[in-house]
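Contributing new records

If you add data, match the layout below exactly. Sequence lines come first and carry their own label; structure lines follow with theirs. Keep one chain per record. Anything else will be rejected by the validation script.
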Amino acid sequence: MAPLPVEPFDPGLVLTPRVDRSSLITVRMVKYSVPVRFIGRKVRVSLRANEVVVFDGRTPIAAHPRIAARTGTSVQLDHYLEVLKIKPGAFPGSSALAAARATGTFTSAHEAFWAAARRVNGDAGTRELIDVLLLHRSMTEADVVAGIAAALKVGAVSADVVALEARRHAGTGGANSGRHLPAHTVAPEHRVVSLTQRRLADPAAVIAGLPADTRPLPSVGAYDELLAQRASSGSTSPTTSPPNEESHVS
């Protein structure tokens, strides 16, 4: 008998559609999204019983559950993040965001971070959110969500802080990993706190959370003493009479 082939067998129907200007491909009257960098190019599609897998050469670039209806559209928010970062004003009303909310991939943690970021940074907060969404490409969802929660807890609305906290969560195996860490690694953790962002997000809470100021009230008595010394020294200094003009007359 001949040996099995090295490459895995693809049970799907192979098609080669072209990506349109909306970063969509049409497969059996149904549209599926792919990353925007493939706009205008032909891709290879494996149409399977329950899913649609899209390839660039041999590299998978997208996967969707197969839509059994005659028409329909399946879009993923991740495929449009690069464009939405350039045009963040299109993010709130985008169909990709609506689809992400419907499928649950855009969670309440993302909503909370977005609201806090826009409250502090305005429209620039949407770009911070998109940077957070891009973290999902290299980190697990649990780590990113934990990073968002930790950042919001200290009042930070920066994607860099979320990434730092997400890496810390991944490094410790998650909050519920049950893993025993070595004794020398058990130490109090210091989280990044942005006082400026906390003050902008909720000024009253920041002021209320400050410790009581026990310092004495400032006094200007020392300056009064200096003024008194200056006045007394001026009154005791000898006065010099102006020279007699007649002495210079020959």
